[in-house]
Amino acid sequence: MTADNRFADASKDLGYDFSGELKIGGNCSPVVQDGKQLFISGQIPRMGDEVLFVGAVGDGINLASAKKAAAVCVMRALALIQRAIGSLASIQCVSRMTVYVRSAPSFTQQSEVADGASDTLAKVLGSIGMHSRTSVGVLQLPKGAAVEVDLIVSIK
To answer: Which residue ranges does the record assign to the Endoribonuclease L-PSP/chorismate mutase-like domain (predicted)?
Structure first.
């Protein structure tokens, strides 16, 4: 099974369709290619005009929902990569992922939230999806989103 097929399966498992328009906020490019590297702008869990998970994790958003939000974010990033280079099979490796978690003051499980994105990368890309990662708790994210994810990938 190809990475593109696993992406389609992961979309179904999450219950979201990533084939439509992926709205991007701000005056920036969602994907910038520099040689064999792709830099993917921060993705929030947005489908169409709706941000799916709004609020602070640990205060209104529980860990399971935050992990799902992180998975949606990374699926958006993968959809953007797929559109930019034609197929996820062209990914050589995921070099870096940063996960920003809008956290309640007492919330300390940012790493566990980031696992939602990491597990999704592993499911879709297999060993190629293994990456370095930073997870950071923040006060606020665009549109009130609970999670934001950005990626750096190398392509063949």
So the answer is: 26-135
SS3 57: strand
| Confidence band, pLDDT 50/70/90 cuts, at residue 27 | confident
DSSP 99: E
Report CA-CA distances (Å) from 126 to 9, 21, 92, 93, 138. 14, 26, 11, 10, 29
For residue 145, the 8-state DSSP code is B
CATH of 3-14+27-155, picked from 3.40.50.2000, 3.40.50.300, 3.30.1330.40, 3.90.226.10, is 3.30.1330.40
What's at 142, amino acid-wise? P
